[in-house]
Amino acid sequence: MAYTLEDLLLRICECMAESLPESWLSAYMQATIEGQDIESSFRYVEAGSDEERPFSPIDEIAPMNAARELQSLMRQEGSDWDTIRVTIFSNGRFEYYTM
């Protein structure tokens, strides 16, 4: 099955959202992919706070696999990035950028 950019981004967002406390305001996954190696970190901010706190998704493998597929898909379209950051907001909005 071929996934779209949006499918993969939504998968990452869903994996993060299901693991966050009720009072979260925003959260992000940052993943760096170099060859077969992938390094990721997950952080969130609670409402009323500016402090980022680490968290672990219930299924940590799924968002990393989605990031790897996303990199492959975007490389087919000419993009050449090693790091992606996907941010979700409690109002349902999300954004991403690559480095």
Defining traits:
99 residues; 2 helices; alpha+beta; 36% strand
What does this structure look like?
The protein has helices at 5-17, 61-76, and strands at 24-34, 37-46, 52-54, 83-89, 94-98. It is α+β, with helices and mostly antiparallel strands and 99 residues long. The protein has a five-stranded antiparallel β-sheet with strand order 3-2-1-4-5, with helices on one face. A hairpin with a 2-residue loop joins strand 1 (24-34) and strand 2. Helix 1 (5-17) packs antiparallel against helix 2 (61-76). It starts with a helix and ends with a strand.
Mean pLDDT: 95
Helix content: 25-40%
Order of helices and strands: HEEEHEE
**Class from helix and strand fractions:** alpha+beta
Strand content: 35-45%
Q: Would you count the extended β strands for me? A: 5
Oligomer: single chain
Distance between the termini: 27 Å
| Rg, nearest Å | 13 Å
Largest sheet: 5 strands, antiparallel
**Which strand order do you get reading across the main beta sheet?**
3-2-1-4-5
Number of helices: 2
Morphology: globular
Low-pLDDT runs of 5+ residues are none
